[in-house]
Structure formats: structure tokens, C-alpha cells
Write a structure and sequence with these properties.
heterodimer; A: alpha+beta; Tick-borne Encephalitis virus Glycoprotein, domain 1; 3 domains; ten-stranded antiparallel beta sheet; four-stranded antiparallel beta sheet; globular; B: alpha+beta; Protein Transport Mog1p, Chain A; Jelly Rolls; seven-stranded antiparallel beta sheet; 6 helices; 20% helix; elongated
Chain lengths: 422, 391
């Protein structure tokens, strides 16, 4: 037991862990060029053991402790040392507080990682939303009447079946693609077989695409699923975020509109978003895949989206001008508290409400938008981070601890010198 | 001063980490909740159930005004469904909870020819193409609206889903129009509906034909990433040199190393991109056009214009080099000039191979240094091509 305790309170362990942390941060940062921001985060930092690294297009065979392992061991090391080694004396008070601050930082980071959510709220002027969508997580939903059954994308593992008491059938995942492409199957030119002739796949080809590694694009997943009752198969369908995310259906519409005209593009878009349904026991279930949706107990209505530019910067070569300000005026409506008020959200002035922080994120409300006849719209970045205060608290504790330690030594030094002089 | 024994601390910390981890895990479980469909703020706006069942307002209905009106007797169990795309009739036929799709599409002219369409359908059921001589073996004779027509019953396994797919299709050539009656979907359900389909064909009547072909989609305007069009009626595409019906069936060839497959633009059978150090690039485009593809001279002069070079005269064609390829003698074209967009030196190496009733074009174009390095690779690539049977 003593050996274990000695191991965990040893300063050598701290040094080794910090050295590994330096290497991990270095490797993880370089690997972002190959693996992308989110890929590198998952591979190096949100990981217990890192096996192999991708740097400059090469696979490097290495084994490193991952971010979780280093963080946890550092935390254990720090807490044990705190308790075993340090003494509650005035002499050590500053060090105690600074170390406690580091513990708060470590725990805060862990809880941020586990508990925080980053979502988005899209709306055009006049629209009301009581939910936000995730930009990284997706869900397969089945809707029967008012009931929504949401199956997280992460549970849809290829070759496996998902069963839930809420559905009278099982979902067998035949294929799952983190990123996919969609292409319209014009009636007389399809040469390869459709993945399935049910639902949207009859009119659209879906295929696997390379995973996106940059942060300005995102993966658009699709799954090929077979629905099975205990006695028979109901058929095979493709469920895709291409069809379930209104913003993506709009993208498909606009990209086809440029080449085949708005009429045909509307037809293509409406077929992509066409309902896919299955009827079991007289109950109809419609299903699609979409960004994970989180409902709020309150709603926001976008009253006005304002995009102002610096005067005189709109020129024929730069019709958008230089942006000066993005601003969304929203109305909060909370039926539980009866609260109804208007708030303005702008850059650096987020709205903090109901445990969420709403930041101004994107906007389509400039002069060009109005000229093109589009309704002004705004996207808010919605962040929920219950431990958002911990970095502030931790840093303050470290700062205060260091100041106390410095002042204590300063006073002792001055006192000693005065004593010597007298 | 020791406050606690460390042995008490470790389980405590492990427990708190576990609690934190469990708090984060809750998001990865199946959730069931209710939304109030009367409350517009909470209706999942893009769930399948909330989607319009018919086309949105403002959409043009398919223009079938020039076509004879189709009359038929609807078989039992079939359901009419909204018309989309080029369909003049559309049905769902079902059995055992599974559905198959039945469509009627009229197209002007020969609509790409029966052989090309049958091979396209074979592709749709995951079967390899057949030679033209084998086509009569697949043909069954049926009657549509009192006229003889050909029926093809094709089945195979879908490589994607593993399901048995079957297509029963009938082509009726009537006047200037080819009528396609097609039932496709799950093998068993198609089998159960085959007799109903044949009865449906017999029941079809054309009322007061005007003789005009339907208004066609302007397929020449498809997005660049769209696959090229095969099987379409060539006259509908408004151009002189249209891709052959089988332009998309790639020959078997050996792709040189360093060539990366690029996005297929219209009429291309294959496209490769070659990138070298810096921003030097070149592209290889392969296409097959019907007949002489517009003529050797006009194509060479079109290529010369792409490198800002003046056209050559017909007599100059005799000076061009020729080379032997698996399909016959090809013409080798080399043009040096400048890229009008970047003003950098650019080169083009083209190989034009007449083969059967088609002409194959291999074009390597890009920065001068890359093209001169890759010329030999292009020739080897073109010589390695083995063309599909019948070409």
C-alpha cells in the first residue's frame, strides 16, 4: 500500500505526466492538419491511450497516454500530494491555494468535456424556436402522431440491431457512413442499382464520402437500415441527414437551381425531403435522420436580424461591404415563468438564459439577401456549459495563492533584513 | 499532518469521476418524448411526417399536354400516386407489406434504343450487361393497347442491400414516341404482380393522340457533378455531338500512378487530375461521342482555341501523327499555347480514336511541364484501354 501511495504522491510522476502532456499536445496539434480539429480531439485528447499518430501524411507507430489518462493521473497525483505532503501552515498557505486552483481547473475541464453541449438555433425573421440542433451529433427519429422516438447516431452500429420498447420493430443497420454524398437519379440515366427502391433512395443515390477534416465543413451522415418485425422484414431504407436537415435540402435546391432551373430544383428538393413511412399494427411511423435536437422549456422568436456594414464599403467588386455589426433582436417566451421580454444579441453580447448561452453566430440579412428576395435569417450558437465558471475560479485561486506565497516570503525577507540591520 | 488515508481518497475520486461520466453518457440513449403538433414552435419541421405529401406550391406540373391521354384499368391493389418527373402514370403495387413502383414514361424518338435501356436496367438489378445479339433471348412478346411490344423480365441481387431486385419493363414504339412501362422493386412482390402488370398493359388505351413527344427536361444543364446521361433520346439534348448510349460504361484500363480520379463533368466517361509540386496541374478527360463526334478538324480547332491558338486548315490534318491502339488507328494531337486564364504556358495532348460507330477522345491538358512529363503515361493509358463488347 505504501508503494502505491508513494507512487501517487511522487513528484517524479508529476514531471513524467507533464512531459507526456507536452508531447501529446505537440503531436495532437500537428495531427490536426491530417486528422482535422474534431478528429484530433477525439484521437489524442478525449482518449485514454493513443495508438498511432498521423503526422505530415505519415502513420507514426507510437503509444502515448491520452488526454483523459494524463488528466486523471495528474488529478490523482495532485489530490494525494495535497493531502499527504502539504501541511496547513501559514508558510504553505499560498501553495495550498494555488494547487487547489489547479485541481479546480482539471476537474472543471473534465466536467466541461462531459457535460457541455454546443448547439445551434437557426431561424428566419418572425420564426419561433423552442429547440436547438447539434452541429456534431445526429439522431434517427421515428415520429408517430405526437410521439418522437430518437435514436442517437452513435447507437447505430453497422451490422447490429437496435431494439427499443417504443417501436414495434427492430432497426438493423446495414451500412453507416459518417459522411455521404447525394446525387439525384434522373429517370433515364441511372446505370447502377439503387441502394434500395424504398423511399428517397429510389430517386437519389447515396454513397460514402471521405470524412471532413476541416472545421468550415461538416460530415453529413447517412445510414442504410432494414426494419424488422419478429416475423418479417418491412424493407430497407436510406435515412440521411441530407434529407432530414432543412438547411441541407435548401443547399441541394440552390445547387440544382443554378443548373436545371428553380422548377426542376424544387421538384428534386421536395423528393429528397419526401416522407418515408412504415405502417405497423395500423400505426404509421415516419422517419428521417437529422441533427440531434434539444428542446428548451422556453422559446425564442427572431424579431429582427440586422447586418450593418461600414458606410461607403459596398462597391461593385465587393457587393457585401465590410461588416460592422451583426445583431439579432429576439423575444424570450417562457410559459413556465410567464416571462416575455425582448433581448438583443450581438457580437460579444450573448444572451445567458435557462442555463444556455446564445451567441450571435451567422447571419444572412445583408443588402444582398434582401435584393435576392430571401427572408433575413440568423443562426445563434447555443452553448450549455454547467462548469463555465470553473476556469475563472481556478485561475483566481492560482493567482491568489501565488500572491499570498510571494507576499509571505517578501514579508519574511524584509523582516529578516530589518532584524539583521538592527 | 495527514487528514485522510489515501486508501479512502482513491475510491472517493473514482466514484466522483464515474458520476461525472454517467452524467455525460445519458445523451447516448434512446429517448422518447411528445411534441405538441398544434404548437408550431415545437413541431419537428423536417420530420418525414411533416413533409408535404405533394409538391410545394408554385411547382410546374409535368407538361404532358402534347401527349395522348392514357386510359387504363387499374389492377386491384394498385394505388395511383402523384406524378413526378417525366411520368404520365405512377402506381404503388403492394403485397405482404412491401411495395413496388410502377411507372409509365413516354420519350420522343428511339429513347436511346432498346438494347441500351435493357443494359441500363440490368445494371439497376446488379447484373452485367449483355451483347446486342443476346437481346432477343430476353424478349417476351406482349400486347400494349392492341399493339405488339417487347417485355423484359430482369432480376438480380442488389449489392448494396442484398435484396433480390426485379424489373419487368415493356417498351412500346408508337409513332415518334417510345413508351416505357416499368415495374420494379422487391423480387417476390414483382412476381406476385406480374400478371396484373400484363393485364394492365393490355387494358391501356391511347386517347386522341397529338403525336408530339413530351416536353423534355433540359438535361444538358445538369450540375457538373452529375453523371453523364445515357439512354436519353439524343434529339432531346439539343447538341450535335451527344454521348453515345453507353458513354458511361468505362473501358477497362490501367490508370497511371499519380492520377487521381476527378469529378465527372457532363459527357465525360472518366476524369483524372494530376498534381505536381507547387500549383502545377493537368487534367485528363476521356469521352466517347456518337459518330465522328463532330469531326476531327472541328475538335482539334476547339482544343487549339482552348490554348489561344489559331485554327488549322483541313489539309493540315494529314501532317498529324497516328498511333496504333487496341481498337484501331488513332490520331495523336499535340498543341502548345497559353492558358488564357493564367497566361502560363500550357500544353495539350489529345488522342482521337474512331471505334465502331463512336469516337473516343483522350485529352491531357494543363501546365506545360506536367503535360510533357505525362504524355507517355497518357499514351500508355489509352493503349491499355479494353473497350466494352459491341464497340
Amino acid at each position: 500500500m505504501k508503494k502505491i501511495v508513494d507512487f501517487f504522491i511522487s513528484l517524479k510522476l508529476t514531471v513524467v505526466l507533464l512531459a507526456f502532456a507536452i508531447v501529446l499536445v505537440f503531436v495532437g496539434t500537428l495531427a490536426q492538419a491530417d486528422e482535422g480539429l474534431y478528429g484530433a480531439q477525439a484521437h489524442y485528447f478525449k482518449q485514454w491511450i493513443v495508438i498511432g499518430a498521423h503526422i505530415f501524411g505519415h502513420e507514426i507507430p507510437l503509444i502515448l497516454p491520452g488526454g483523459y489518462l494524463i488528466g486523471t493521473l495528474l488529478l490523482v497525483n495532485l489530490v494525494c500530494t495535497h493531502i499527504y505532503r502539504f501541511q496547513f501552515t501559514w508558510k504553505k498557505l499560498g501553495i495550498q491555494i494555488a494547487h487547489a486552483g489547479i485541481i479546480v481547473l482539471l476537474v472543471g475541464q473534465l466536467s466541461t468535456d462531459l457535460l457541455s453541449r454546443e448547439l445551434q438555433m437557426h431561424f428566419t425573421e418572425g420564426e419561433t424556436r423552442n429547440y436547438s440542433d447539434s452541429s456534431t451529433d445526429f439522431e434517427l427519429i421515428f415520429v408517430a402522431g405526437d410521439q418522437v422516438i430518437s435514436i442517437p447516431y452513435k447507437l447505430l452500429k453497422p451490422g447490429q440491431e437496435v431494439e427499443t420498447a417504443a417501436l414495434p420493430f427492430a432497426i438493423r443497420v446495414k451500412a453507416r457512413w459518417h459522411n455521404s454524398d447525394v446525387n439525384f437519379r434522373a429517370p433515364m440515366l441511372a446505370k447502377a442499382p439503387a441502394l434500395t427502391t424504398n423511399g428517397i433512395a429510389a430517386n437519389f443515390d447515396f454513397k460514402r464520402a471521405e470524412d471532413i477534416k476541416t472545421t468550415d465543413q461538416r460530415n453529413i451522415p447517412s445510414v442504410v437500415i432494414e426494419l424488422l418485425t419478429p416475423t418479417n422484414s418491412l424493407g430497407t431504407w436510406v435515412a440521411s441527414v441530407w434529407a432530414g436537415d432543412p438547411a441541407l435540402v435548401d443547399t441541394v435546391r440552390s445547387s440544382y437551381a443554378q443548373s436545371v432551373g428553380m422548377g426542376m430544383a424544387q421538384t428534386i428538393a421536395s423528393q429528397l425531403a419526401a416522407p418515408q413511412t412504415v405502417t405497423v399494427g395500423g400505426k404509421q411511423y415516419s422517419f428521417t435522420m437529422r441533427p440531434m435536437r434539444i428542446y428548451h422549456p422556453f422559446s425564442l422568436t427572431l424579431l429582427k436580424a440586422t447586418h450593418t456594414v461600414y458606410p461607403g464599403t459596398i462597391t461593385p467588386t465587393d457587393p457585401e461591404g465590410i461588416p460592422k455589426d451583426f445583431r439579432s433582436r429576439v423575444r424570450i417566451d417562457n410559459p413556465q415563468t410567464g416571462e416575455k421580454r425582448e433581448v438583443e444579441i450581438s457580437m460579444n453580447h450573448p444572451l445567458r438564459y435557462g442555463g444556455f448561452t446564445f451567441y450571435q453566430y451567422q447571419m444572412d440579412a445583408g443588402q444582398l439577401t434582401r435584393q435576392a428576395g430571401r427572408a433575413a435569417s440568423s443562426v445563434l450558437s447555443v452553448v450549455r456549459n454547467p462548469s463555465w465558471l470553473t476556469p475563472y475560479v481556478g485561475c483566481t485561486m492560482v493567482g491568489v495563492g501565488m500572491v499570498i506565497q510571494f507576499v509571505y516570503h517578501l514579508i519574511r525577507f524584509i523582516t529578516k533584513r530589518q532584524t539583521k540591520n538592527t | 499532518m495527514k487528514l485522510f488515508a489515501c486508501s479512502n481518497i482513491l475510491p472517493l475520486m473514482a466514484a466522483s469521476l464515474l458520476v461525472a461520466a454517467l452524467a455525460g453518457c445519458g445523451r447516448d440513449s434512446v429517448k422518447v418524448y411528445n411534441v405538441d403538433t398544434n404548437d408550431t414552435t415545437s413541431v419537428p419541421s423536417q420530420t418525414a411526417g411533416a413533409m408535404p405529401m405533394t409538391m410545394p406550391n408554385g411547382l410546374p406540373a409535368p407538361d404532358n399536354s402534347g401527349l395522348p391521354k392514357l386510359k387504363y384499368k387499374l389492377p386491384e391493389g394498385w394505388k395511383e400516386k402523384p406524378l413526378t418527373q417525366m411520368r404520365v402514370a405512377s402506381f404503388d403495387a403492394s403485397a405482404g407489406g412491401k411495395q413496388v413502383d410502377v411507372s409509365v414514361i413516354p420519350l420522343g424518338g428511339m429513347a436511346g434504343g432498346d438494347f441500351a435501356n435493357v443494359n441500363r436496367w440490368l445494371g439497376q438489378v446488379g447484373q452485367p450487361p449483355i451483347a446486342e445479339a443476346e437481346l432477343p433471348k430476353l424478349t417476351e412478346k406482349v400486347e400494349v393497347a392492341g399493339q405488339p411490344a417487347d417485355l423484359y423480365d430482369l432480376a438480380g441481387t442488389n449489392a448494396g442491400s442484398g435484396n433480390v431486385e426485379r424489373i419487368i419493363a415493356t417498351i412500346l414504339h408508337s409513332g415518334d414516341t417510345a413508351w416505357f412501362f416499368k415495374m420494379n422493386g422487391d423480387g417476390d412482390v414483382v412476381e406476385q404482380n406480374k400478371s396484373a402488370f400484363i393485364a394492365f398493359l393490355k387494358s391501356v388505351e391511347f386517347g386522341a393522340p397529338s403525336g408530339a413527344a413530351p416536353a423534355a427536361m433540359d438535361m444538358s444543364q445538369l450540375p457538373p457533378s452529375h453523371p453523364p446521361i445515357g439512354g436519353m433520346d439524343m434529339s432531346m439534348m439539343g447538341g450535335a455531338s451527344m454521348p453515345s448510349a453507353d458513354a458511361t460504361s468505362k473501358p477497362a484500363w490501367t490508370v497511371p500512378s499519380g492520377w487521381q480520379e476527378g469529378p465527372l463533368a457532363q459527357f465525360l466517361t472518366a476524369k483524372y487530375v494530376i498534381k505536381r509540386s507547387g500549383d502545377e496541374t493537368a487534367e485528363v478527360n476521356v469521352s466517347a461521342l456518337n459518330g465522328d463526334g463532330g469531326g476531327l478538324l472541328s475538335n482539334i480547332n476547339r482544343w487549339r482555341a482552348q490554348l489561344a491558338q489559331s485554327p488549322i486548315a483541313g489539309a493540315d490534318l494529314a501532317k498529324l501523327a497516328t498511333m496504333d491502339m487496341s481498337g484501331g488507328k488513332a490520331t495523336l494531337v499535340e498543341i502548345s499555347g497559353t492558358n488564357p486564364r493564367t497566361s502560363k504556358p500550357a500544353e495539350l495532348v489529345g488522342i482521337v480514336l474512331p471505334l465502331g460507330n463512336q469516337t473516343w477522345f483522350y485529352k491531357l491538358m494543363g501546365d506545360a511541364t506536367v503535360v510533357s512529363q505525362q504524355k507517355a503515361a497518357l499514351i500508355q493509358f489509352a493503349q491499355s484501354a479494353k473497350y466494352p463488347a459491341g464497340q
